[in-house]
């Protein structure tokens, strides 16, 4: 008997890999269970109407498994010839339940399994322990990596896998992982704190977030994988994400064919680099709010999004109130991986291999108009394909991506940049050794000149280019985009939910003023400037409430070290739908950004909620906050100036009421949709709107 002969199936346990695998396999399928042990999974599958063939090398387990399997092949799958004993059968599902990590060459076994899958419909299900689980990370902090009788560090494991390693293993064998799930084994906060304490490390919000993410919480990955379309076994791993993208695009085509616009509406494709709920920055929130607002008016809206995280790939319906939109997330391609560090530069804008994927999506959905919010992780080739089909495009310039490969016009040394100078200013920002990014290197210069010329050419293919602020428009004009091609069209702002309006309008008078920050904890947002400025205030004078997503864990740890004031409150991430409740809890919102902000949604939403704003006098912020009228503006990245401003507000709390009374409500989302609809209909012509024949 093997060391696994004692295992049983408990379908009442939702966190069991057997429960998850059985659901993925489904009913009435022909299944090959590789490493079937004594047949405990086969017994479950047989009860679901499946026919199961098992492969097991342990004679005792194989004998027991015959009670639950139609056939048991008593062979080692790493030895040749076992396939011949299957009688030429093709399987709906092949299962590797905690098997691949025990094999000398799992890549080769997966390759040999491929021809055994039923054509077009066959798939592989695998459960694989995650060596990046929080328990292993904590032991490594103390210098421990000891083999165990069972579990992640089972002494019989020959390979250890992280999420990326799992994806690469399947890709190298000609398979694409199309769904990720996991079992979890939580480690309590006090245990984590104890380990970190023994390692001499602090335990705070940033560390908690680090240890609660998907890859840290997953104990075993449960994946399904299918043969990559038109793949050969020898194809390099870097091509597989593109094939996964093609599969995802086909899935979207089938779903989009099931519905059409209402009341003469349009087919609208929104393209964005990433999307809610995982990513909730300004561009993503605006894209979501606009998409649902358009859907409420009868337009058929689809969102094409990049997926930086592999487990997000796929088509999913996203709901808001009584509306649903379909969000198609495609893998962030890595076509230039072979160029090493330089490859990341090209991957962020130029993925010509993705063109077939985009072509399939456009041909199946047949959008009347494509509204581009951001193309990072997707491909600027989307614009070429739209132009070739005569599909009008609207581009909203949400940041400086078309000009700057670092997106925010901030150099590697932290200083701000006026623009690319057609690419000549960009060499210093390549993520490569200094010699490689030198102006003396013709390849570095050529790459940046090419990027500027290529993306400017792509941008000008759009029929309408919109900018949410005059400042952002002027930056593009100074950097070569004709002024007449860009229209200033600020964002619309969703309205607070009716049940919160009284709370926002009739604010209680608090004993101490509450300043707040709402956004992402990243360096460019200048949260460190706010924390240092607040540190200069006397204890008890006011409160600072920080609502944010810890996007950059190292930065958050630095913030926690800086935060010495007893009245700083870390409130954690705020789901998109709850942002109004967060605004109801503060008296003044502080936007201390140190980059050229465009038109921050946090300011729009604060003003819609009647919350005055203190903002940096940088980028488009002064267009929204009128100094001394409805808020204050202060020099960016100036701790002393911000501290003095906070002190002045505390000394004259009545100014908050004066500012609140002077706030002009921002443009509503309904008014903004009126503008966007007018642009759409002008571009496509009313007679062309609605479903096409």
Task: Explain how this protein is built.
This protein is an alpha/beta fold and 693 residues long. The protein has 3 domains: 17-235, Rossmann fold (3-Layer(aba) Sandwich); 238-488, 3-Layer(aba) Sandwich (Rossmann fold), CATH 3.40.50.2000; 498-666, Rossmann fold (3-Layer(aba) Sandwich). 34% of the residues lie in helices and 18% in strands. The chain is built from 25 helices and 21 strands. The strands form 3 sheets. The protein has an 8-stranded mixed sheet with strand order 10-11-9-8-12-13-14-15, sandwiched between helices. A 7-stranded mixed sheet has the order 3-2-1-4-5-7-6, with helices on both faces. A 6-stranded parallel sheet has the order 18-17-16-19-20-21, with helices on both faces. Helix 11 crosses helix 25 (669-684), helix 13 packs across helix 14 and helix 18 packs across helix 23 (639-651). The protein is globular, with a radius of gyration of 28 Å. The termini are far apart.
């Amino acid at each position: 008997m093997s060391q696994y002969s004692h295992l049983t199936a408990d379908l009442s346990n939702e966190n069991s890999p057997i429960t998850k695998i059985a659901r993925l396999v489904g009913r009435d399928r022909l299944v090959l269970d590789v490493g079937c042990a004594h047949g405990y999974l086969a017994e479950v599958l047989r009860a679901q109407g499946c026919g199961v063939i098992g492969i097991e090398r342990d004679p005792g387990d194989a004998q027991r498994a015959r009670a639950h399997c139609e056939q048991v092949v008593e062979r080692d799958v790493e030895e040749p010839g076992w396939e011949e004993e299957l009688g030429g059968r093709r399987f709906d599902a092949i299962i590797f339940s905690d098997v691949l990590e025990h094999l000398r060459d799992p890549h080769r076994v997966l390759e040999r399994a491929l021809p055994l899958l039923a054509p077009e419909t066959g798939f592989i299900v695998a459960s694989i322990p995650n060596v990046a689980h929080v328990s292993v990370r904590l032991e490594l902090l103390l210098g421990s990596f000891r083999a165990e009788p069972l579990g992640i560090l089972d002494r019989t494991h020959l390979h250890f896998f992280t999420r990326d390693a799992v994806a690469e293993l399947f890709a190298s064998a000609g398979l694409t992982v199309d769904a990720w799930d996991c079992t979890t084994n939580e480690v309590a906060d006090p245990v984590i704190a104890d380990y970190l304490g023994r390692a001499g490390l602090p335990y705070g919000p940033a560390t908690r977030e680090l240890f609660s993410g998907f890859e840290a919480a997953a104990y075993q990955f449960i994946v399904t994988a299918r043969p990559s379309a038109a793949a050969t076994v020898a194809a390099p791993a870097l091509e597989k994400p593109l094939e996964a993208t093609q599969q995802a695009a086909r899935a979207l085509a089938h779903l989009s064919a099931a519905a059409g616009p209402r009341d003469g509406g349009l087919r609208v494709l929104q393209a964005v680099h990433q999307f809610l709920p995982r990513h909730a920055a300004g561009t993503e929130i605006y894209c979501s709010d606009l998409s649902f607002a358009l859907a409420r008016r009868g337009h058929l809206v689809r969102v094409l999004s990049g997926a930086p995280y592999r487990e997000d790939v796929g088509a999913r319906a996203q709901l808001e109130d009584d509306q649903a939109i379909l969000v198609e997330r495609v893998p962030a391609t890595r076509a230039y991986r072979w160029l090493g560090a330089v490859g990341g530069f090209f991957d962020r804008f130029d993925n010509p291999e993705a063109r077939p994927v985009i072509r399939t999506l456009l041909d199946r959905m047949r959008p009347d108009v494509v509204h581009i919010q951001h193309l990072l992780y997707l491909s600027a080739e989307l614009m070429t394909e739209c132009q070739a089909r005569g599909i009008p495009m609207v581009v909203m310039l949400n940041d400086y991506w078309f000009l700057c490969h670092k997106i925010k016009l901030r150099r590697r040394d932290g200083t701000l940049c006026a623009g690319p100078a057609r690419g000549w200013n960009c060499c210093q920002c390549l993520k490569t050794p200094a010699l490689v990014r030198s102006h003396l290197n013709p390849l570095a210069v050529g790459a940046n000149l090419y990027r500027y010329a290529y993306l400017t050419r792509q941008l000008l293919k759009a029929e309408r280019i919109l900018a949410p602020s005059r400042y952002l428009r002027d930056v593009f004009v100074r950097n070569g985009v004709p002024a007449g091609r860009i229209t200033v069209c600020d964002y619309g702002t969703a309205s607070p939910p009716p049940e919160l309006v009284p709370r926002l309008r009739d604010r209680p008078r608090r004993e101490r003023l509450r300043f707040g920050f709402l956004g992402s904890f990243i360096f460019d947002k200048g949260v460190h400037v706010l924390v240092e400025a607040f540190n200069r205030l006397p204890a008890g004078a006011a409160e600072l409430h920080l609502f944010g997503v810890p996007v950059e864990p190292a930065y958050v740890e630095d913030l926690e070290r800086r935060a010495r004031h007893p009245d700083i409150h870390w409130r954690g991430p705020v789901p998109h739908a709850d942002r109004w409740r967060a605004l109801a809890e503060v008296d003044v919102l502080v936007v201390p950004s140190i980059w050229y902000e465009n038109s921050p949604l946090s300011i729009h939403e604060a003003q819609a909620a009647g919350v005055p704003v203190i903002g940096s006098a940088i980028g488009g912020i002064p267009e929204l906050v009128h100094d001394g009228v409805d808020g204050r503006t202060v020099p960016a990245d100036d701790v002393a100036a911000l501290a003095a401003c906070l002190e002045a507000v505390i000394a004259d709390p009545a100014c908050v009421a004066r500012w609140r009374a002077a706030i002009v409500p921002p443009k509503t989302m309904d008014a903004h949709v009126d503008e966007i609809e007018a642009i759409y209909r002008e571009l496509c012509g009313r007679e062309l709107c609605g479903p096409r024949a």
